[in-house]
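The records we work with from here on pair a chain with its fold. A complete example follows; check for yourself that the lines match position by position.
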Amino acid sequence: MPAFRAPYPCGEAWTASTRAGHGGNGNAVDFNLWPQSLEKGKPVLAAAGGIAKFTYGVEGGNMVFVDHGGGWTTGYAHLDTWTIDNPIEPGERIGTVGGSGSAGGTPTLHYAARLSNISQPVVFAGVTIPVGWNNYSPSAPKTTSTNCGAPPVQVLPVAQPTFLDPCGARNDRYVVPLSTGAQYLSGASVKPARTYWGRGTVTLMANTLPGFQLTGTTTWSHTFSTAPC
């Protein structure tokens, strides 16, 4: 798991609230200051380094999603403004708090960490944060942000791709794995984790995302054989 930190400014304590079905399984969190207007326009910070994209949805309004590799993504919704300059550094400003989408103008910072598109309990600095269940009030549990400057680099082993090269060419394939902190490239093309057909010579490189250090081999090349069975 990436070493996530709170997505709001260093030293500030925000309440964390959720409800049934929030984020699909109740693991998404709405962060707020009180009275619920103080957070409007506050910086939204990346919880960890990665590659970001913007999208708009009727529910989430203005949203930024950051891919951290290894199947991990974080989402930030109901934004007022957004700023994306890839790659994203840990703690980099990616937007400001707003009330877009279903928030109906009421400022709130919706946050979710997902693994393979399934929302996970929110963990900051290795600790699962307390969350108020159906408690959207000043009495909900608070978490103080430690998103203060550059964090220690997270050192992780890189997952190795697999080349499947049986006789003949009909079943030649290669598998790009999930690897936290890595983005796999073939030339200039990003290769998401899945199985691909293998033809000719395939060269892969694991690009290190900001805030991470990968250990092990990070470049691989394989020439697929066409020899008959």
